[in-house]
Design brief:
homodimer; 364 residues; six-stranded parallel sheet; four-stranded parallel sheet; 13 helices; DNA-binding
Chain lengths: 364, 364
DNA sequence: ATGAAAGCGCTAACAT
DNA sequence: ATGTTAGCGCTTTCAT
């Protein structure tokens, strides 16, 4: 059983009685002064030997490895689609995505900065031309990002912005998302609002804060916040919804999953949208469950975010001189009206009017 | 803006006035005859310079690249978990998974063997130590798998078995799955059965055929098959379920998604499991929708399959001489009873008895 | 206990 | 129109 070594330039050169330089130049279309006959012979023999360039050798010569280090956790629809966008775009530009996941692993590798550092080292060891990262914590610049920047290896961040860094960033414009959601509900006349948020997630908080600000700017409108991972979320929510006095008429959920859980709770109370309240999700994830079909939400364009990240990456990697001003790109999410919002229910509308009238009287 | 090159052995050697050989041997614990003082200095300086070995150079010397070429499409829970298992296991063994997805891409790269070939070439160019693949079609051995085998690069197949090849294979034991599903329903007394399958998917067909065979071996039991991607699946199914005469009392669905769609159709007809019929899914995917909570199904242990694939890979890559007999591993899926199966409904049971009695009479 | 030299496959500058 | 040479970073064998 003889191990057939992959073909090298040397082998082709030997076969034809020429030198490696000749073969190299012809195959790379460099220094085009070669006899047509030689060109043909070289190309033929390369094909016959199934020659494939050795990226390792090329990389060693100081050239590019045409490999991108990508570290993004394998969590949920959004990041998954982002990775897809990166993968496809890079492949279309002769670049291979070296993907490593930094989410919680099963055994030894618990979820911590050390794992991410290990992965970054693995990728650096392979001399990737640059990085596209989505760190799982906000304070990782001390840990390994600095190592990347010190070496002046191009770096693009996705989804999770690390403020202190001057690296490129591509993500969702959460402020626009929160504002449009609020605007939509306010325009429909809703004044008693609720935001089901995730306090742990900075992106969710950004959306929620924008939502709150917008509501705050509207006279007579109030909003409260509920943390999905807070204590007894389901019970507290049910309590609020049960009582017509406290029941919000408009609900903004920080993602579609949360929205579906809210709809479940409402469903058990025989409440439905948009009859009894309006509800908006976020993310545009296509869940299998039928309720998701009628949930108004926001498309975050995750695939486009991935594409944009890949393009930012390629821009850096191909630049002759390092770019100094980072490119920050926040993509506007788009509201998808699927019919889970509508006008304020009549009973609630009457109550609202009364309150407004009172306000007008008690105001100085 | 000076580009700080990554540290090399040469730099460390120069710093200390020794040679690269010394540094190399000390850092790799080779040829242990070095003065303790030198050892210390070398280790210190390496740390100071943040030295990282150049995997490219190591690979060029004929050594391993400690990179595994993995091509598995990014489709659904099962394969996703498989990839996770591979990723974690390899990382625990100082090997980086170079993941490429071969599912339908957005733009130019349509879903075809050429894309897979392109990806395999990309990976070969990076001199991966071996491959773990899940090809998206059954007849790809002609296309690129042969190239891999010709070079005697280790190859492990996952989930989708390519019969003609003598490569390792790790996947689900579909025969066991189909048989256990049939056994379970038959043991509960069900005799009128239905299998909702996917004719396109060889794994689904394998489960269905095992199911059919088992049912065929049981006197008085019958089963019919419905293709989920067939014409008017929903209408045809509704027709069958509506009529108590034709309604099966036991349904085996080839995966959980199909099962949930079946439950939806039944739900609209005011039929529910296990009251009106028993139903079993396959895959154990955790869907967000509540109906999934109570669906009896099979766990395929996708993570374990990934781990096993990684171990098979490592076994090959680390072997001094090539293994000749391929390792075939089919992991038994495990039935998860979540309560969607039960005894035959009384009405249907009476009908069954009558039929059996008739059979007894008409039989010779 | 350490060093010298060759070579992995390739490219680019510089001959001929 | 083609060849020579040097070197990328590392390991290995063979000196010293």
């Amino acid at each position: 059983m003889k191990k057939s070594k992959p073909a090298t330039l040397q082998m082709i050169a030997n076969e034809l009685g020429v030198t490696v330089t000749t073969v190299s130049c012809i195959l790379n279309n460099k220094g085009g002064t070669y006899a047509e006959a030689t060109r043909q012979k070289v190309l033929e023999t390369a094909a016959k030997f199934k020659y494939r360039p050795n990226v390792l050798a090329h990389g060693m010569r100081g050239g590019k490895t045409h490999s991108a280090g990508v570290m993004i956790r394998n969590q949920g629809y959004f990041l998954n689609r982002v990775i897809n966008g990166i993968h496809d775009t890079l492949l279309n530009h002769q670049t291979l995505m070296l993907l490593a996941w930094n989410d919680r692993n099963h055994h030894q590798l618990d979820w911590n900065p050390e794992v991410e550092k290990l992965i970054v080292h693995h990728l650096l060891d392979r001399r990737v031309d640059g990085f596209i990262l989505c760190s799982s914590s906000e304070n990782f610049d001390q840990c390994y990002v600095s190592e990347i920047l010190e070496r002046h290896v191009p770096l693009v961040l996705v989804d999770r912005e690390l403020k202190s860094l001057n690296a490129d960033f591509i993500g969702t414009d959460n402020v626009v998302g929160g504002e449009v959601a609020a605007r939509h509900l306010l325009d429909l006349g809703h004044r008693q609002l609720l935001c089901c948020s995730l306090q742990q997630c900075s992106n969710a908080v950004a959306r929620q804060e924008a939502f709150d600000r917008m509501v705050g700017d509207c006279a007579g409108a109030t909003t409260q916040t509920l943390d999905f991972f807070g204590e007894d979320f389901h019970e507290v929510l049910a309590g609020i919804l049960k009582n017509p006095e406290t029941r919000p008429t408009g609900i903004f959920c920080i993602n579609d999953y949360v929205a579906l859980r809210v709809l479940e709770v409402a469903n058990r109370l025989e409440l439905s949208a948009p009859r009894d309240f309006s509800i908006i999700g976020f993310g545009g994830q296509r869940f299998a469950e039928p309720a998701a079909m009628n949930l108004s939400t926001f498309d975050q364009y995750p695939y486009a975010i991935g594409e944009a990240a890949a393009h930012a990456y390629l821009r850096h990697v191909r630049a002759k001189v390092a770019h100094t001003t980072p490119r920050i790109l926040r993509i506007d999410p788009k509201f998808l009206d699927k019919g889970s919002t509508g006008p304020v229910p009549k009973k609630a509308a009457r109550k609202q009017k009364k309150l407004c009238a009172q306000d007008a009287i008690t105001a100085p």
